[in-house]
Every structure is written in C-alpha cells, then in structure tokens.
Design goal:
Blueprint: H1 2-12, H2 21-26, E1 40-44, E2 57-65, E3 72-76, E4 79-83, E5 86-88, H3 97-101
Antiparallel strand pairs: 1-2, 1-5, 2-3, 3-4
Length: 110
C-alpha cells in the first residue's frame, strides 16, 4: 500500500511550478492511468504460447505499479501477474471482496 501511495503522490501532485515530481524527473508527463489500489480490473495475460482464439484478458486485483516500467502488478487466484494492459471494470464491478480473498499467495520457506 505504501508504494502505491508514493507512486500516486509522485505522479499526481502538482507543485507550485505546475509540474508533478514525475514530470520534473523525466521531462515528460506520466501516461499511465492511476487505477486505485485493490480495484478489480481486467488485464491482458502474458502467455505467448496461448492460442490466439483463447481469451487473452482475465480479471484480477490491482496491487500496484512497477517502478521501472509502465506495468501493473495484478493479484489473481493463481498468484501475482505482471501486465502492461489494464482495463477498468464498470463501477458496480470495480470493487470485489471475493476477488481480494481469492488472491493466491505462496509463502517462501526460509
């Protein structure tokens, strides 16, 4: 959650000069949609071996944005996925407690 808060602060807050911290650092505005943390979204699966006829989009919960690229972290029942294409769902479908509870998490053993 803290990373998403820092990302939204850097990409959305305007300074006295009318520029965001992201714009000052990179000399261009951020082009990513700022989707709220925990929102239920549709995302493009990254499976190059998949048949072109099969469904390419799946649903999951937005967990945040990658710092080094324009990609999103998505939580699904199968684990966490990284994708560059996210579609927001309709307002009545955007928040799902069941989708959050269904996120598959694997705990690494020490």
């Amino acid at each position: 959650v803290w990373r998403w808060a820092a990302t939204s602060q850097n990409r959305c807050s305007m300074g006295s000069d009318g520029a965001t911290p992201y714009t000052r650092l990179r000399n261009r505005p951020c082009r990513m949609d700022m989707v709220p943390f925990g929102e239920h979204v549709s995302f493009l699966k990254r499976d190059p071996s998949a048949n072109k006829v099969d469904a390419r989009f799946s649903t999951g919960v937005l967990l945040g944005h990658a710092r080094s690229s324009n990609e999103y972290w998505i939580g699904t029942a199968g684990g966490v996925a990284l994708t560059s294409a996210v579609r927001r769902l309709a307002a009545e479908d955007a928040w799902s407690g069941a989708a959050i509870k269904a996120i598959g998490v694997r705990v690494a053993e020490a």
